[in-house]
Amino acid sequence: MEIVYALVLGILTASGTWLLLRPRTFQVLLGLSLLSYAVNLFIFAAGGLVIDAPPIITGVGTSDPGRFADPLPQSLVLTAIVIGFATTALSLVVLLALRGLTGTDHVDGQEGEP
Amino acid sequence: MNLWQHLPVLPILIPLAAAATMLLFAEPQRTPRLALAFASGLGQLAAAATLLYLTSDAVPQIWAQGIGTYTIGGWRAPFGIVLVVDCLSALMLALNALLALPVLVYSIARSDRLGVYYHPLLQFLLMGVNGAFLTGDVFNLFVFFEIVLAASYALLLHGAAAQRVKAALHFIVVNLSASFAFLLGIAMLYSALGTLNMADIAARWPELQGGNVGIAHAGAAILAIAFLVKAAGWPLNFWLPATYTAAHPAVAAIFSIATKIGVYATLRLSSLLGYSVTPLGGIWLFYGAIATMAFAILGILASRQLQRVAAFNVILSSGTMLAAIGLGPRPMIGPALFYLLGSVLASGALFMLTGMTERMRIMALETAYSPAAQPVTYSAFSVGEPPEPHAPDAEIGIAIPAAMAFLGLAFVCCTLLVTGMPPFAGFIGKLALLSGIFTSMSAGAAALRGWLFIGLLLMGGFAGLLALSRIGMRLFWSVTGRVTPRLRLIEAGPVAFLILSCVALTAAAGHVMTYVDSAAHMLNEPRTYIRAVLTDALEKAP
Question: Which of B112, B180, B306, B410 is most buried, judged by most C-beta within 10 A?
Fold first, then answer.
């Protein structure tokens, strides 16, 4: 499972980075979204990848922490997703404003040298 | 029940409550918003002043050793989020409050009517900056960074001109990428150390074993990248000049402390980890900072606009701070903090002055307030009719006499301040830095690095003097195309206040130096901090 997970992260990061370096604002925005998926998955993996283990410790007699997933990275991911979502939404607004004010979707507000 | 123990959370709660309450008043109601903004500003100043007093070890029965902790929700420190006030935090809080008040007054004159929600956003920005200075938890630091950034994105767009929107897009993309780096660093630190509390990270750092050493070091390095983007360290600072030049002067003035939270975070983690982990400290940070200073000097010399010079000056002051942390830090931290105080106040004054001198050169500045740009924000937020785009100057406040004389005098004072010429605080800060460099060179730091730092420090002042006198000559001595602007007291007053507070800083240099030295002493002895955070929490646990 680890290798699949790592490959997914790698592909997401690589695609995100490539899109981030493109000249069109919408591509940059998509790149940021892909990067944020990669980062969120990375945080999730920071607690270790375990299968079939709940993050909530139930019952009194269960003192073995190995039977549970680490809940902290999951809550961190939740916070990171919310913040990332809000900032992405804001950059979408800025993108539209720039398009409206300059009439082009180039990140510099003007086309480069042909 | 001791009420004093709740003091550390006030600098976060006051602006939060003020901003939330302001939103209840619809846009045309300026008076309640302004009243709330001022109450909040004064409240923050009072809280910060009290914290300064308490951390200076004046009342040891409240906080032993001058370090206060506040466990949010009563959860014990390594598990819950903890706020920590030591000398450095209190100093930065006071600096923030001291800068925020003049900016608030200045923005009443015209800036707050260029767009909607100016005052709530400003309060959120202050809340984020205060929180970043207070928190003792890495993830919480990330959250406060994001609050600062979200507020500054919106403030940067304030008065939406095409140039501003373009700069804002670059600013958002760069800082969003930096936030991702921040998260990666946090995740790596957590997977290696199993904790997010800064004191706990420092306590567990020496016990790292095996593969975790590499992960933790890589995590710290990635975290440092994120901090350096915010602190404008070269080569991560190309976003700054355009952004700070495009921002409204009042907004740029408050941004000059927002950059310093990156420097603060670097200094805090660096000191907790014993200044040894690259690039949070040591030779990499030092050479990066030297490159930052060189970049800023070139930028200052190449700029033709006053606001651009001020923007590069912010980079220069960040570079100086980082170089001081990177060079054998122990004798350097105290002088660097003193330099920081003078430099932030001076950049704030310079940015605000820029807003007034620009009016003198081009009265056609109304492009920024052009009716084409206005409806975007106003209609989007459907807050009713926009107020008069450029309301007649006569309406608010008293105009001051001899506007040109005031502008000239303030310009000269600002020049002396930012370039570190006597008799102002900048000079004392630089002198202390120079003497710190000599101390650390005699204590064994490489002579080459010391001389490099000295050279750039002196050259920075010289370049600033050259560029500012060139701009000053063009502004004040050229006869053509100049209009004497009407300056109101609420615009000129804040600049005068900041300049006078720098004079006060010079006059009280002895006291301030004692305080920053004790702050530096605390940073150099991180065990006190670690013990205060981890054991206080244990004692308070039920």
Answer: B306
